[in-house]
Amino acid sequence: MNALIAMLAQRLKGLRGEGLRGQLVKGGIGSLGVNGGRILLQFAVAVVLARALGAAGYGVYAFALAIVTLLAIPAQVGLPQLVVRETARAQVEERWARMRGLWTWSTVFVLAFSAVLLVPFVIAWTVGIPFLSEDRASALLWGLLLVPLLALGQLRGAALHGLRRVVLGQLPEHIIRPALLVIFTLIVIVLPLSYPLDAAGAMALHLLAAAIAFVFGAWLLLRHIPEQLHGLRTREYDARVWLSAAWPLALLGGMHVINHSAAVVVLGFFATDADVGVYRIVAQAATLVSFGLTALTQVVMPHFSRLHREGDYHRLQQLVTQSARAILLLSLPPAIVFVLFGEWILAVVFGEEFAVGYVALVILVSGQLVHAAMGPVAILLNMTGHEKDSLKGVATAAVLNVALNLSLVPLFGLEGAAVAMALTLTTWNLLLRRAVMRRLGLEMLAVPMTRKTRHD
Q: Which cellular compartments is it found in (predicted)?
């Protein structure tokens, strides 16, 4: 993996001296390391919770977490990506008061939205939610308390990303939080408690891990803010512009969440808790295929914004093409492993009751491979100010996803949900690739389908 990052940097010989190439190598290796750790820890969380809760208990946990993730959309309001983009721009333009104002404004906004969101749902839980079982309702209540912590944690990471502290920006949410959740879960399992761990208890442990990770992330940001911000009292606000950019990003983030959570929610209403648990496991396993996409996106995100801001589309095309090739090379090995040995892996690692998800796993792996082959298409649009085009494509895919899940899940269960997700990923990426070609004249594919782009 490190060799792929070095190859990516070496191929970009036209970039400014050693500056950007050095940042790509350093940030890329670090990001791959962090994301590799994140993947391993996510698997550790899934294995530990699946073994501790069983398929049905894990299904309750997954259903509650999916509902919480959907409810958290308004609390974030699309701010993390906005903070990355605007922090990078403010640093380039040396507008330190604007950077300080952006961070303050986004924090207050998240806290206000979280308060608005939490109060009615706590009241609803108190009086009872008819369509939820007691186990689901208890897990959901603990999960709701996660909303502000997760949203604020992502803002802290976004600020570090914008400052080109790629690795540090990912540590709290990608490493610290899942690592603590694994540790806390193992401690509870080992301790001779009078009651077994259930879905609500697992969600409470998740809340504790998130709180500690948030404190750690806030400390990291304080240690690495630019020197110009030390002692700076002035804050420059541009709320109208930020809100104008944040709403499309919020809707975009919401569509992403719907795409990733729709199957779990629909399965929760039309299938058993065990089916929900199995699907959640195979969906997490399939995301290994797009590991390279996730890792390299964190590296190139601020550079997309900077190169576009400078109007250097030739170097931007180079960066896009080489990152797409690195992503594709990283995606093929896990795809092959899951197709050949997926059933055995599910049975041995997670338990025999999860082996029934093998067919769904193969279908999801196919969709994730298409997703990875298209490269960081959504991030490129978002980082270059074309979030509305990104929103249109993702919104279309989200509507398709919900419609397909409602049509296929009642008939085909796990496999129906997997087909819905695979078709959604394919449709979404094709739509966004067309938008990139139209707006920026750039080709996203690792192996271009056209001989020339507008900026060759």
A: Cell membrane
